[in-house]
């Protein structure tokens, strides 16, 4: 059992043992493989290959999933819980494609740390960089796993330098690879003075560990070929001179990342990484909220919705709101207050996501992710409490970068279209604007691909063919400010005004010039490109 009492000694043990994190990586770096090994060691699956197999089965179910597969992206939501060494890990899946940045951003509001996976031959790739920047906005602690060390990879110093330079974060080696490519034999665990040897013959076998008494221990030469050992000792000497040593506080503050080297497919280095998440990863953190922040050890339960997924089971038209528990000890059947509507909600069928199945959650602690099936009451950004009017902050909605008009293939089905659009808007998959003049809707997204995904889902889930068409507008800004000024502004600019899916006022335009004009002509009106989801 790991010592988990170090970073917050005052937390109740059930909360202190929780680690809630996401994996960030560029497609193909090994996120799925690593996830699978986590689940394997967490006892959540019995055999490697199950997650992928399950994924394939799900994907072939529909055109949409087929499209997802073809493009190599992952849009299916999941949060997985598993136990390891006395710890409870909650792994929240981040959508992989750059088009889904808003969704990804919100997912990252629900975690306390991120594991960054990079490919040892490719280093820091574009998507990793983007996701890293998002983590940086929240100062999320990052632990790094350099994968595919069984293949020809870059020089270790070069990899570390690249991370330091591209991401402007201190990197400290937690392990050091010995040999590369075909000659890769394993790693030296710098934190615990151990030699970990990789077994190429059996991919699922856990590495053999040999306790080493310092770098002049003769046991090293028994296990490492002489030419590799010499090079390794030289590198270690240099590393100790040039690279910073591990500072747990700097890791928690997001200024330093420890890096482990390994090969997920060979189950190598994964346990060390999991130990690392336990030792150096943060426990559930304080959640920013208004009028006051929420501490995980508070006895009263609270949580917030960071993701809504509709139609997870197409037979049941259900919606699941993914809730990150911010504080307390939740028990199934509890009545919580839905702060936005001030209404009580009995949470009788919460679910926990275990690898491939959902299971009723009898209880949950701060740090956990539960799914609450509902009929649309719960929206992204909503807070649930035991009565106090707290609202979690920091879950933004971004102005869409692409706008298109949408029409139902069959004009008689316009009402159905509205329903479908509202549902996707609630999921956060698109913004839907109803212009104050004329009929029809304008849909806003962040990436072009989302229009295709939407059209395909509306057809599949609602049996409604739709057409997206060019809109006269290209930008949207939320309108706020002095009520009288806003009234005057909306009345004189009716052809540019719409309501978004929450009923908030939006200014639609083609030109930056228009936005600048509003700032000049209406000093009491504020146009913003983001809005807090509440
Ligand atoms: P992703 O979720 O980040 O996109 O990556 P994924 O785990 O799917 O891995 C991408 C490819 O890299 C897969 O190969 C996977 O087997 C391989 N891979 C993962 N970890 C390692 C590793 O440690 N060493 C090596 N050599 N390869 C690794 P694929 O050919 O695309 O799929 P598959 O046919 O092997 O399933």
Describe, in plain words, how this protein is organized in 3D:
The chain has 534 residues and is α+β, with helices and mostly antiparallel strands. The protein folds into 3 domains: 13-280, 3-Layer(aba) Sandwich (Rossmann fold); 289-392, 3-Layer(aba) Sandwich (Rossmann fold); 399-532, Peptide chain release factor 3, domain III (Alpha-Beta Plaits). Helices cover 28% and strands 30% of the residues. It has 15 helices and 33 strands. α4 packs antiparallel against α13. The radius of gyration is 25 Å and the shape is elongated. It starts with 12 loop residues before the first helix and ends with a strand. Keywords: Cytoplasm, GTP-binding, Nucleotide-binding, Protein biosynthesis. InterPro entries: EF-G-like_DII, EFG_III/V, G_TR_CS, P-loop_NTPase, PrfC, RF3_C, RF3_dom_3_sf, RF3_GTP-bd. Residues 16-285 form the Tr-type G domain. It comes from Shimia litoralis.
Give a short synopsis of this structure:
The protein is α+β, with helices and mostly antiparallel strands. Mean pLDDT is 86; it is low at 1-6 and 52-77. Residues 25, 27-33, 147-148, 150-151, 263-266 line the site of guanosine-5',3'-tetraphosphate.
């Amino acid at each position: 059992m790991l010592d988990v009492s170090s970073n917050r000694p005052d937390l109740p043990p059930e909360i202190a043992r929780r680690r809630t994190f996401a994996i960030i990586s560029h497609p193909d770096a090994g996120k799925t493989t690593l996830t699978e090994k986590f689940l394997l060691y967490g006892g959540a699956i019995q055999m490697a290959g199950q997650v992928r197999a399950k994924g394939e089965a799900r994907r072939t179910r529909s055109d949409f999933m087929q499209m997802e597969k073809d493009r190599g992206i992952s849009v299916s939501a999941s949060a997985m819980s598993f136990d390891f060494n006395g710890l409870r890990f909650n792994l929240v899946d981040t959508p992989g494609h750059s088009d889904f940045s808003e969704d990804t951003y919100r997912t990252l509001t629900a975690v306390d740390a991120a594991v960054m996976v990079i490919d040892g031959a490719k280093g820091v790739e574009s998507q990793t960089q983007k996701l890293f920047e998002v983590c940086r906005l929240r100062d999320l602690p990052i632990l790094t796993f350099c994968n595919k060390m069984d293949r020809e990879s870059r020089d270790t110093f070069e990899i570390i330098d690249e991370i330091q330079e591209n991401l402007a974060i201190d990197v400290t080696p937690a392990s050091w690879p010995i040999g590369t490519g075909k000659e890769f034999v394993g790693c030296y665990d710098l934190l615990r003075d151990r030699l970990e040897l990789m077994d190429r013959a059996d991919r699922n076998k856990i590495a053999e560990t040999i306790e080493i008494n310092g770098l002049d221990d003769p046991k090293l030469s028994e296990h490492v070929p002489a030419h590799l050992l010499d090079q390794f000792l030289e590198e270690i000497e240099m590393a100790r001179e040039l690279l910073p040593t591990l500072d747990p506080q700097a890791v928690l503050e997001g200024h330093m990342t420890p890096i482990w080297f390994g090969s997920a497919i060979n189950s190598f280095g994964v346990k060390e990484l999991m130990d690392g998440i336990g030792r150096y990863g943060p426990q559930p953190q304080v959640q920013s909220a208004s009028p006051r922040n929420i501490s995980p050890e508070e006895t009263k339960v609270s949580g917030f919705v960071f993701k809504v997924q509709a139609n997870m089971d197409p037979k049941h038209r259900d919606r699941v709101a993914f809730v990150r528990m911010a504080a307390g000890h939740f028990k199934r059947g509890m009545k919580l207050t839905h702060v936005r509507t001030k209404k009580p909600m009995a949470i009788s069928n919460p679910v926990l996501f275990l690898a491939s199945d959902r299971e009723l959650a009898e209880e949950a602690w701060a740090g956990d992710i539960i799914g609450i099936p509902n009929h649309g009451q719960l929206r992204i950004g909503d807070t649930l409490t035991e009565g106090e009017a707290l609202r979690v902050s920091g879950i933004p909605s971004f102005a869409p970068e692409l706008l298109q008009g949408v029409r139902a293939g069959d004009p008689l089905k316009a009402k159905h279209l509205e329903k479908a659009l509202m549902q996707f808007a609630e999921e956060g998959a698109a913004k839907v604007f109803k212009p104050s003049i004329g009929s029809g809707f304008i849909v806003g997204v962040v990436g072009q691909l989302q229009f295709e995904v939407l059209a395909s889902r509306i057809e599949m889930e609602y049996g409604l063919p739709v057409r997206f068409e060019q809109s006269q507008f290209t930008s949207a800004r939320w309108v706020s400010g002095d009520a009288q000024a806003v009234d005057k502004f909306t009345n004189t600019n009716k052809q540019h005004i719409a309501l978004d899916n929450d009923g908030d006022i939006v200014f639609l335009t083609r030109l930056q010039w228009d936005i600048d004009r509003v700032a000049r002509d209406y000093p009491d009106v504020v146009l913003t490109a983001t809005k807090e989801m509440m």
